[in-house]
Amino acid sequence: MLRFNPAILVVCLLPLALAGCRDNSPKDDPRTQPPLVRVTKVISATDGSRAFSGVVVARVQSDLGFRVSGKILERLVDSGQRVKRGQPLMRLDPADLRLQAQAQQQAVAAAQARVRQASADQARYRTLVATGAVSASAY
Predict the structure, then answer these.
(1) In the chain, how many H helices and how many E strands?
(2) SUPFAM superfamilies from the entry (predicted)?
């Protein structure tokens, strides 16, 4: 017959006993726990003053320029200074203006020389056509 072995009984009952000793409380999931929050009191570093960034621009701004180009010799007013109508702002070097005037006078003299040459050519051709030295179509 079969003999009763107590070791087999212990091996069969031991897992059941150990399963009953297990802790059945649910584990805390860190994703479901509320986050830790630190509460502090905010104290203002200033006493109600405010700072704003921006650019200050004049309400009326005039674009100024010279009628002629040239080198500036002297600036008579400073930036931001009040000026009146007709008040000179800067002085230009008169050498550039003098050179431009001379160039224009020389251009006028050259044009007058071309007019004298053309009228002399016309008078010469008129006499040549009258004497028959040149055909009228060349005149």
Answers:
(1) 2, 2
(2) HlyD-like secretion proteins
Pick the closest to residue 90 from 107, 103, 78, 102 (CA basis). 78
pLDDT of 116 strictly over 90: yes
List the beta bridge partners of residue 75: 90
Q: Are 70 and 96 in contact (CB under 8 A)?
A: yes
Nearest to 90 by CA among 109, 105, 68: 68
DSSP 70-100: --EEEE-S-TT----TT---EEE-HHHHHHH
Res. 108: pLDDT tops 80: yes
In the predicted structure, residue 136 carries a pLDDT above the cut 90? no
Residue 102 has a pLDDT of 97
Q: By CB neighbour count within 10 A (0-12 exposed, 13-18 middle, 19+ buried), where does 139 fall?
A: exposed
Q: Contact at 8 Å (CB) between 122 and 99?
A: no
